[in-house]
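call fold target=DNA-3-methyladenine glycosylase
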Amino acid sequence: MASYCDYAPGHPYHGPYHDQEYGFPLYEDNALFERLVLEINQAGLSWLTILKKREGFYRAYDGFDLSTVAGYGEKERSRLLNDAGIIRNRLKVDAAIYNAQVILGLCERFGSFAAWLDYHHPLPKEDWVRLFRKSFRFTGGEIVGEFLMSTGYLPGAHREDCPVYERICQAQPRWMSS
């Protein structure tokens, strides 16, 4: 079975994501929120579809600014559901708004979304999934696993023989301190 490390390099969309983002640790809350929104929107679709629409998501969700998205009301929800530049799924749009509100609450209690993640690290994937399902909307096992792998909390984003793997290790993702 081919891995992402086999087909992503050199691809116009997958290549840059694979080489510069996937598996590297994220610390900034808006960037973590962006990744969560993108992973949620990927459910049932290809990652290529999400990467192609990424700029549209960025514009539609006000640069993934947590405070702005958390304050969205019916007018913004309607705008998002009519925006062909993103995935127009009510459950996914509602989840993004709700999850931004939850993350802001976590920031108040823990100082940041990253600090909340660090507080719970390390956990096995199954426990992460339970925690995310309890805390957020639209966060099943695949979404949570990919979110955590793509942000450096769980291993497995790259094969050890992938050239990017060494750069990720140098960035000291959290899974290395488990």
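return ok
The radius of gyration is 16 Å. The mean pLDDT is 97.
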